[in-house]
């Protein structure tokens, strides 16, 4: 039925349908916001009693004498202490009535004491953080982990949906209110001229918004997010297993929801106000990204976008790779088609897997004998090319504007301007409008090397960077390099420190490694297969990556523990590290128990960085390696409990700083098969067993069929490589 004109306006079925569509979209947006709000409130409800208990413990540990500091020594507390109230917590619990009963304590003193105690209490509420102890799950922490699990499982898509819903509701709500008269002919007739005009304009706005939302599939995004957020809570064990696998994501959410963000200046790397403001204003598109960012990570990505050619120098463990992927994803959303990542060969596989897992971007490996064909394919089809420093030298430098972003990982590898790899990177950096150098090695005290790196990014900044800048102190240095350099430290930006961060370091075996591995497979020797990557140290890919990890840990003042099942592997590692690090051990089964502890004590007491080598069976149980914050596992263990127990020896010191675990794995062989087979075991059973007293005492109790697993792997590898020979598959 055609619509009628009413005072210059027309209303009909089309207008009513447009308003109805807008109302449905608005309801869906409001629903997903409400579902998310309830999930967040569930976390807050679980967190509240845990936080209150932590605050109480903190206050119960503060002696009454501290109240003197708060009041600058004006209080006389002798009578209070003699009454048995020895802590600030005790004073608050006693309250004004009991305090007033203490001989010699008047009302004025009571008021002053309580006021000072409350100030300390408020400070504790602001600063105390809840730590989740995976080794001692209690009902309270379990409830918190289960509540967080809902939001972590919903993932970045749910957060994206909530953000889109909020923006849409803000625009759609007023339009729906103005469009009210257009929902019926009588209402339109009774409305005044101005209201009719506003109603028809609002209908047009609603129609445009709804069409835009449907093109972006926002109704589908909202619906899926609501489903994910309303999904029933996980079982306790399932939630704990997921927490172990993704603890950083849980802690990130916890920090956000608890409202205790890190210091803003620290998040922003203490940049000058002008640069920080420009970075904050930089939009960051997440449509091609599959991972949520912490606040400091989002700032790092924005810094790279706003400043165009920069060096990200965050301390190891803060997620530089994720920040780079966020930049790549943003530029892809803006229409850029070609990107290049240059990195050491030891992390090439990791880069490939991280980009595939955390973004929707296409990845091409430009490495190996077919690298030139791969390069031609990348140039034609676009995406992210991942190559090595040495391979880069063989590729022609791009034309201007051809590459959207050049990422150079471990950029300190090109600090020598005379090296050919440095010259190749410099040529590419000059031709690219955007460049992101990344290094976890602090460069502040190496001005000459730092200046050479900065010169590739901004010759003007390099020209004015001199020795005086570092001599004047870190503030002056940061100001001088602020246009191109951003560095944050763990203790500055992780208010809720993840107790454990685990990284699988996938390495491509060198030709020499492959040859040694093939010989072990032909012999049917499972244990030789597991340590083949270390048999020829001069060309060992795993050993090269291990040295990089230890070197970076040392540069950041951190101690490292290196575990292996094999004594001969530890011998190879000791020889490789001896020239560059202070090495203790190896701690093996033949070392008497008393001597083991002395080794650990010497390692812990050594000033500065150090490395402890340990056979995993000997050090996995009974020792607390509290000084170590970096752990390297030379190979995957056939008994997963040995890995968990070994890591737990260092994990216990995670109260001070997070523990970073690197598991060295080789692609395409025994490591990959072993990892996959072990993952196929029932995760929930493994998680339960790891927490049981039996598992702690006797790892063999929960690891079964090791010999059968070894035989299967040997047979499959012999079939894959087309070799046969002797068989000696026992796991040992």
UniProtKB/TrEMBL annotation:
Keyword Nucleotide-binding among record annotations: yes
One Pfam family hit: SNF2-rel_dom
InterPro entries, A to Z: Helicase_ATP-bd, Helicase_C-like, P-loop_NTPase, SNF2-like_sf, SNF2/RAD54-like_C, SNF2_N
Ranges where the Helicase ATP-binding domain occurs: 301-460
Top-level taxonomic group: Bacteria
UniProt keyword Transcription regulation, yes or no: no
Matching PROSITE patterns: HELICASE_ATP_BIND_1 (PS51192), HELICASE_CTER (PS51194)
Boundaries of every Helicase C-terminal domain copy: 545-710
GO molecular function: helicase activity
Keywords: ATP-binding, Helicase, Hydrolase, Nucleotide-binding
Protein name, UniProt field: DEAD/DEAH box helicase
């Amino acid at each position: 039925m055609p619509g009628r004109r009413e005072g210059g306006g027309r209303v009909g079925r089309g207008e009513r349908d447009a308003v109805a569509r807008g109302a449905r979209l608005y309801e869906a947006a409001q629903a997903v916001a409400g579902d998310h709000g309830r999930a967040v409130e569930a976390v807050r409800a679980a967190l509240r009693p845990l936080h209150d208990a932590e605050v109480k413990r903190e206050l119960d540990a503060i002696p009454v004498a501290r109240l003197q500091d708060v009041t600058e020594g004006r209080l006389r507390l002798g009578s209070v202490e003699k009454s048995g109230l020895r802590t600030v917590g005790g004073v608050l619990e006693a309250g004004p009535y009991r305090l007033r009963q203490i001989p010699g304590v008047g009302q004025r003193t009571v008021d002053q004491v309580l006021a000072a105690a409350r100030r300390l209490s408020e400070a504790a509420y602001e600063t105390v953080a809840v730590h989740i102890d995976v080794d001692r799950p209690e009902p309270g922490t379990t409830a918190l982990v289960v509540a967080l699990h809902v939001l972590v499982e919903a993932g970045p898509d749910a957060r994206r949906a909530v953000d889109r819903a909020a923006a849409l509701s803000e625009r759609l709500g007023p339009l729906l209110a103005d469009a009210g008269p257009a929902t019926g002919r009588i209402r339109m007739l009774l409305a005044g001229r101005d209201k009719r005009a506003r109603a028809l304009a609002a209908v047009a706005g609603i129609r445009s918004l709804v069409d835009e939302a449907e093109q972006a599939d926002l109704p589908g995004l909202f619906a899926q997010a609501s489903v994910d957020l309303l999904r029933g809570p996980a079982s306790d064990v399932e939630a704990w297993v997921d927490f172990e696998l993704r603890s950083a994501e849980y802690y990130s959410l916890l920090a956000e929801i608890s409202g205790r963000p890190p210091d803003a200046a620290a998040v922003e790397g203490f940049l000058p106000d002008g640069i920080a403001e420009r970075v904050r204003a930089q939009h960051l598109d997440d449509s091609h990204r599959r991972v949520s960012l912490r606040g400091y990570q989002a700032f790092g990505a924005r810094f790279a976008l706003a400043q165009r050619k920069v060096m990200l120098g965050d301390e190891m463990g803060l997620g530089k790779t994720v920040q780079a992927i966020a930049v790549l994803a943003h530029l892809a959303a803006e229409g850029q088609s070609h990107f290049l990542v240059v990195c050491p060969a030891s992390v090439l596989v990791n880069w490939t897997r991280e980009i595939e897992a955390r973004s929707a971007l296409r990845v091409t490996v430009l490495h190996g004998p077919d690298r030139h064909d791969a390069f031609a394919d990348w140039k034609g089809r676009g995406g992210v090319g991942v190559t090595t420093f040495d391979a880069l030298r063989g590729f022609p430098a791009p034309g201007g504007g051809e590459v959207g972003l050049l990422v150079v990982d471990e950029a300190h590898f090109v600090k020598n301007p005379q090296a050919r790899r440095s010259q190749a990177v410099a040529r590419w950096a000059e031709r690219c409008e955007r460049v992101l150098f990344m290094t976890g090695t602090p460069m502040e005290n190496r001005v000459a090397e730092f200046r050479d790196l900065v010169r590739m990014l901004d010759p003007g900044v390099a020209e004015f960077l001199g020795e005086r800048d570092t001599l004047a102190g870190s503030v002056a240095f940061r100001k001088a390099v602020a246009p191109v350099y951003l560095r944050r430290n763990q203790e500055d930006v992780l208010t809720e420190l993840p107790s454990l961060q685990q990284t699988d370091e996938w390495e491509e075996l060198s030709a020499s490694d492959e040859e040694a591995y093939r010989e072990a497979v032909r012999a049917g020797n499972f244990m030789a297969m597991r340590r083949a990557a270390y048999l020829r140290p001069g060309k060992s890919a795993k050993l090269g990556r291990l040295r990089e990890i230890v070197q970076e840990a040392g540069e950041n003042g951190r101690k490292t523990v290196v575990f292996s099942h094999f004594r001969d592997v530890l011998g190879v590692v000791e020889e490789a590290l001896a020239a560059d690090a202070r090495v203790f051990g190896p701690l093996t089964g033949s070392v008497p128990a008393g001597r083991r502890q002395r080794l650990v004590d010497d390692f812990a007491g050594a000033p500065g960085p150090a490395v402890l080598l340990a056979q995993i069976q000997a050090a996995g149980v009974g020792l607390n390696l509290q000084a170590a914050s970096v752990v390297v596992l030379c190979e995957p263990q056939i008994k997963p409990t040995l890995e968990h127990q070994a890591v737990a020896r260092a994990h216990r010191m995670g109260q001070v700083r997070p523990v970073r675990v690197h598991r060295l794995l080789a692609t395409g062989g025994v490591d990959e098969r072993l990892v996959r087979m072990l993952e196929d075991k029932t995760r929930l059973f493994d998680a339960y067993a790891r927490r049981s007293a039996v598992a702690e005492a006797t790892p063999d109790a929960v690891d079964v069929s090791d010999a059968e697993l070894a035989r299967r792997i040997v047979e499959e590898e012999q079939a894959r490589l087309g070799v046969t020979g002797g068989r000696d598959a026992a796991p040992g």
